[in-house]
From TrEMBL:
<protein>
    <recommendedName>
        <fullName>Methyltransferase type 11 domain-containing protein</fullName>
    </recommendedName>
</protein>
<dbReference type="InterPro" id="IPR029063">
    <property type="entry name" value="SAM-dependent_MTases_sf"/>
</dbReference>
Amino acid sequence: MKRLRNLSYDIIQTYGNGLQISLMIASRGEKPDFDLPSNVIYKKVDFQKNFSDIHNNIVIEKKNFPFCYESTIMTLKFNEIGMFDVIIINEVTHEISDLTEFFKKLSLLLKGNAPIVVLSRPKNPPLPVPECCHLLWRKLAPSREEIINYAKAAELSYTCFSASVPISIDRLEWEKILYSGCFPAVKNTPRCTEKAIRDYCNTISGKVAFEEKFNIFLLKKQ
């Protein structure tokens, strides 16, 4: 019972004050098997074909527990996605069929003058991946000019700049990252099998060192 009281207190502290939510992760991957912080919500989505996963309401289920310090616990049911202070798109690619419409839909989820932050890797140079992935990498990666045009068509103002971060990682760890399929060009290249990844990584001695380059866009409603 003490554990339930503490749990109810945590939930009310997190969600009860004006329904404040720190972070929602919307990903097409499976939810990780490690515990997420209490203020993080995970929602599996797929924006490749349509944007039906984008909505703007939150369903609240109320339950009464007379033995708790507070009489009501609010359980959030994320059947839909709510309003945000900022939306960060970790990596945008041409896997999304209509980026203009995508940006328009996302802009409806912003509070006031909140921004959309878009991170995009340039077409060249790609990350250290097997050569068979390079063609698809360049095909999937939108250029800076393309993203600017999509933002303009969505009637969003934009600011753009570039960043470069030096990366150094153990070869075996990098191999695991490539196996995970987190890079679309690696995941979707038929010839990029586990053997191809293993053979590629075996050609690397020591650590994998490179500069991680990003184009970063700050989009806002006009």
